[in-house]
Amino acid sequence: MADIASLPGGNSPWRSAGRFGLYFLLISFGAYYILPLIVVLSTSFKDLDEIRNGTLLSLPAEINLESWRYAWSEACIGVSCTGLKPYFWNSVMMTIPAVLISTVLGALTGYALTKFKFRGANMVFAMILFGCFIPFQVVLLPMAQSLGFLGLANTVPGLVLVHIVYGLPFTVLFFRNYYVSIPDDLIKAATIDGAGFFTIFWRILLPLSPPIIVVTIIWQFTQIWNDFLFGASFTTGGGQPVTVALNNLVNTTTGVKRYNVDMAAALITAAPTLAVYVLAGRYFVRGLTAGSVKG
Amino acid sequence: MTNSMTEKSLPAKRPLADWLRWNVAKLVVAPTFALIIFFVYGFIAWTGYVSFTKSKMLPTYSFDGIYQYVRLWKMSTWHVAMENLLVFGGLFILIAIVLGCLLAVALDQRVRAEGLLRTVYLYPMAISFIITGTAWKWILNPGLGLEKMFHSWGWESFSFDWLINSDMAIYTLVIAAVWQSSGFVMALFLAALRGVDSEIIKAAYLDGASLSRIYLVIILPTLRPVFLSSFFILAHMAVKSFDLVVALTGGGPGNSSIMPANFMYEMTFRRNQIGLGAASAMMMLATVMAIVIPYLYSELRERKHG
Amino acid sequence: MATLTIQNVKKSYGAVDVLKGIDLELENGEFLVLLGPSGCGKSTLLNMIAGLDTITDGEILINNKVVNDVHPKDRDIAMVFQSYALYPNMTVERNIGFGLEMRKVTKEDRERRVDEAARMLQIDHLRDRKPAQLSGGQRQRVAMGRALVRKPEIFLFDEPLSNLDAKLRVEMRTEIKKLHQRLGTTMVYVTHDQIEAMTLASRIAILREGEIQQFASPQEVYERPANMYVAGFVGSPAMNFIPATVVSENDRLGVSIERTARGERSSVFLALPDDLQSIGEWIGREVILGIRPETLTHRSDAEMTQNKRLQPFDCQVEVLEPTGADTLTYIELGGREVIARVNPYNTSNPGETMAFMVDMGKASLFDPKSEMRI
């Protein structure tokens, strides 16, 4: 739209002043967003003396990775001093299967709901979609009970189950909205050519799906990795995911408060999702918009 | 005789194959649908039922009317939580929308390094609220954070103690939540701005309208759906907010910055007041539905018109 | 090759009846065109023949076998879609061969048949391209190749030419006609374009709101339309409809048309040919006279003495529209705008009175109430 800025008659001293104001605005808000990251990063490289004597924005004298090492393998979380490491792996073990299974189920369900429409398919979709909107507090209690009943309380498989179930509404939504835009004629043609439900999915639909698969995986990965509520409600001690462990580490009150370790731990926890964001930001934004505007 | 019997029974295989062929879609949807029915609808019903009992540490199933709701609304902590939700939600939504919209319009002016700026504005959305809370807790730390920085810059009288001030703690949540979410609102608006019909703008330019007038009078009104979407999404996030409070203020000082989600968690998992926790969860569901249903209604109506 | 029989086929979605009892019977090797405006149910009927839509009531038979519950892939049909429906992720070669692959045809056999089809449609140089790299016309050919390669009993076409530009459309129309002549396979073709219908069909079924208006050969449909709807739908410019009264003058039955010329009311009498004299019971009653523009032209005395069915009248010219070959001449008859097709060298200027003749042997009469042919 901004073509207008380059149209004739737009040049005047006011315009230059306007441009200056524009960049001032953009850069100062850029600082608002980026400074916390810089502060956290530089704090994580400082030792405690530097922190006490310097300020937020003073840069570390040297890149000191001691607090990163400590946060990773020694810091006390609650009573056990193992560092974030085991919890980080808990999160990995929880996130990967939950993302994969919910994506596969979402793709198949979205496909069946759009391309093999049966009576009531729209109603079924609406009922699944409802799951996107509930505050999870209304399922916490029965879920805790059920996990106990299933023997999955305080285990990674239990969290995998929880994240699959409550991720499904989103994955179904993504795939359904994507498959709706693929012409039905393709499915008709393949049916006449003799392909069945799964052949059509495997040979025709799936090769067209990489964009939405990437969006869904990124969305699910971010949601599940960043989850705190389920982790805090259904796990204790060694079974916790890394977000819960981070919170416990930061709020562990024994001994000297080591801010540099807190910051290093926060960055370790944030690293996987930040990496995804940097590597595939375009898909990330697409997922956000797809997951929120229409869901 | 036996021969003809077996011959007759052979084609019976086909009906099954045919049945499978026509019903395979239903069979594929069934597991997902069953999971949702059980874990969403079943669980809501369960929570709903428990909210009408006197369950404490363990659920009991004798119906006790609206006892828990009466109790809930008599608790000052719950009132604090609901008031906090109003204050936090109102400010958070307002600031995030204004800021997001402003940044989107600014980015839409053919600026240099737009990609970089967009990346910077949006990255907080990729990280957990727990991390956001941890980071801002450090920055707003009254002894070592911003306050100390301003002191060292010579502004000795500067004082910033919102984190430990029970009147102000709720606003620290707004600062951190806006930091995390306004980039997302910006992305929504930017996408919509890019979709505005450029011929309308050219026509307005030919009519002699200035750039600011074009935005205020022509473009922003066409973005009404984005305002609505942003409002509903942010409101939804506000009601659900739990992690940020835990990480940044812990609901304190005292209970001054507690939110309904934290209240629910506290009652259910810490204080063994399951019935009360269930009642507060149902109140949250009602609040979210009060926001979501009009939103879905307007979305669906718009789609029909479009 | 196959016969196709459709018996009292109905389709309804809830309370909405899309097809209200369709009966059609096709011989081996016929080319049926289902013609009608959008929403008339023609595509639904085609989908039902293909097995892509369920049948509410009635029966569809291919080679005298009821196929209502037969899966599309077992019906031995092939279909060309309006959107072509090429698989975007496969090359031209694999697109064409996919149906054979699904039917477990061996690789060598498949390659041979794909080769044959590709050469027949002159797309063998495109075999390794993906659909996105093809032009509209090429995609159309690939879609036809995919149907062709299977050597089906029946070909189904769902508006296959409507996404092409005008020139290509004419080209591909001829191509399809050639294909039908070469293969002799039964074909069913859905379109809303009456020219496609006229040029391709051995028989046309005209549908309107889920009902067949007429099922006949193109010539029959053109010359003896069953009702005013068919008459108006087929032919361009459309047939002229003129309100008239059946009268008897000097022992000859004819129609009298009211008109106003230069403020004066008068009437034109046109005698009906002898084979239409049987409508005596209509004397004194209103009818609608249907005249095709090309049967209404400038008067030629030589022709009139040869053909007694040609009837003369004079009329003032309102507007001229030259098209090159003919000039469309607008006149007013019976309060309606009427188009005559006149040789460009025999036209009169607007405002002048011109001598016309009309071939009443090719005229149609319709009942103004039921709109049916008399």
Automatic annotation (TrEMBL), chain A:
UniProt KW Transmembrane helix keyword: yes
UniProt superkingdom: Bacteria
Keywords: Membrane, Transmembrane, Transmembrane helix, Transport
Signal sequence, start to end: none
Pfam families: BPD_transp_1 (PF00528)
Cited CDD domains: TM_PBP2
Domain ABC transmembrane type-1 span(s) in chain numbering: 88-280
Stored InterPro entries: MetI-like, MetI-like_sf
Cell location: Cell membrane
Membrane topology: Multi-pass membrane protein
TM helices/strands, residue ranges: 20-41, 92-113, 125-144, 156-179, 200-221, 263-285
Protein family according to the UniProt entry: Belongs to the binding-protein-dependent transport system permease family.
PANTHER family in the cross-refs: ABC TRANSPORTER PERMEASE PROTEIN, GLUCOSE IMPORT SYSTEM PERMEASE PROTEIN GLCU
Protein name: Carbohydrate ABC transporter permease
Natural source organism: Kiloniella laminariae
Automatic annotation (TrEMBL), chain C:
PROSITE patterns, alphabetized: ABC_TRANSPORTER_1, ABC_TRANSPORTER_2
GO MF term set: ATP binding
Xref: Pfam families: ABC_tran, OB_MalK
Keyword annotations from UniProtKB, A to Z: ATP-binding, Nucleotide-binding, Transport
Transcription found in the keyword field: no
Chain ranges of the ABC transporter domain: 4-234
Signal peptide: none
Annotated InterPro entries: AAA+_ATPase, ABC_transporter-like_ATP-bd, ABC_transporter-like_CS, ABC_transpr_MalK-like, ABC_transpr_MalK/UgpC-like, Mo/tungstate-bd_C_term_dom, NA-bd_OB-fold, OB_MalK-like
Keyword ATP-binding: yes
Similarity comment: family membership: Belongs to the ABC transporter superfamily.
Official protein name in the record: Sn-glycerol-3-phosphate ABC transporter ATP-binding protein UgpC
The organism of origin for this protein: Kiloniella laminariae
Gene: ugpC
